[in-house]
Q: What sequence folds into this?
């Protein structure tokens, strides 16, 4: 009996040790990553993505490559202007299976524009310090680099009042890290819903539908930017606009899809890539969205808008 009690005691200790080890072992799936870890990564991505400086383009490229899945292009900035971001806060998160999640983050940004005051003695240079010195690599420093410009006004730049931007960040776990599966995209507050389970790559393009709806989609995206959605939004659709945080420059691409098998013919979806000009002409961002359209009273209306999340690794 004494021997049996000794064995049970040892086995119990082993079981407790295994349980504690499982608690301490990091999870390797997105579904097992703690919310605070997911949020922390998304906040860092948002600050880097919404920060840029035309003088230090190489630095931003270096930073965003670190956040991206191998081989993915995630920089939607046009390379002009200057903007700094900080104070990122998660508004919500939506997980998609065990591989992907979309986190909506609000960040405070300060836009800059070239100082065009004719009395200004110094204007914004056309070349960055690295270009002037003949070097194309960003300045080396200790720690993990961030894309936010130094918090001092540079000669030739005029800072404008700070404002908030909301961005949706698509993440997936890969080799023990949370990485971007696609470029983040500007969204309205409180954010975007989870994408449906049918990736755009599995849908079939409809060329005629694309041509017939392109002008309407351009109107949808313009209204999405300004907030004037009343005349383009389908009934019962709930869509949060950008509230003037950006201006539509162009609808770069629109690809309408054929109706899904079994779906009503008056419901369609498509993928739109647009170029936004952020406040005070501080720069431009290219963002991609998935649109849901609904036909009412013989015309197509906007029923929903989500970001394009790309494919999980």
A:
């Amino acid at each position: 009996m004494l021997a049996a009690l000794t064995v049970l005691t040892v086995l119990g200790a082993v079981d407790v040790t295994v349980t504690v080890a499982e608690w301490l072992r990091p999870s390797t799936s997105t579904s097992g990553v703690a919310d605070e870890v997911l949020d922390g990564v998304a906040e860092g991505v948002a600050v880097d993505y919404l920060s840029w400086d035309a003088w230090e383009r190489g630095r931003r490229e270096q930073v965003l490559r670190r956040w991206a899945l191998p081989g993915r292009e995630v920089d939607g900035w046009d390379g002009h202007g200057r903007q700094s971001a900080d104070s990122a806060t998660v508004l919500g998160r939506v997980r998609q299976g065990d591989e992907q999640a979309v986190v909506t983050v609000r960040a405070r940004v300060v836009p800059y524009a070239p100082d065009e005051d004719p009395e200004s003695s110094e204007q914004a240079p056309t070349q960055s310090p690295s270009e002037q010195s003949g070097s194309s690599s960003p300045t080396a420093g200790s720690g993990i680099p961030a894309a936010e410009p130094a918090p001092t006004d540079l000669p030739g730049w005029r800072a404008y009042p700070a404002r908030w931007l909301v961005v949706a960040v698509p993440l997936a776990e890969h080799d023990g890290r949370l990485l971007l599966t696609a470029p983040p995209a500007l969204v309205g507050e409180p954010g975007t819903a989870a994408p449906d389970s049918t990736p755009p790559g599995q849908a079939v393009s409809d060329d005629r539908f694309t041509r017939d709806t392109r002008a309407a989609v351009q109107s949808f995206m313009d209204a999405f930017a300004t907030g004037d959605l009343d005349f383009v939004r389908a009934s019962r659709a709930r869509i949060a606009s950008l509230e003037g945080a950006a201006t539509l420059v162009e609808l770069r691409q629109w690809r309408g899809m054929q109706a899904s098998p079994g779906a009503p013919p008056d419901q369609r979806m498509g993928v739109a890539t647009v170029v936004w000009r952020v406040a005070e002409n501080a720069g431009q961002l290219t963002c991609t969205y998935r649109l849901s359209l609904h036909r009412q009273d013989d015309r197509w209306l906007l029923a929903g808008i989500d970001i394009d999340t790309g494919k999980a690794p």
Q: What stands out?
A: The longest strand covers residues 82-96. The chain has a mean pLDDT of 82. The radius of gyration is 24 Å. Residues 266 and 298 are 10 Å apart (CA to CA).
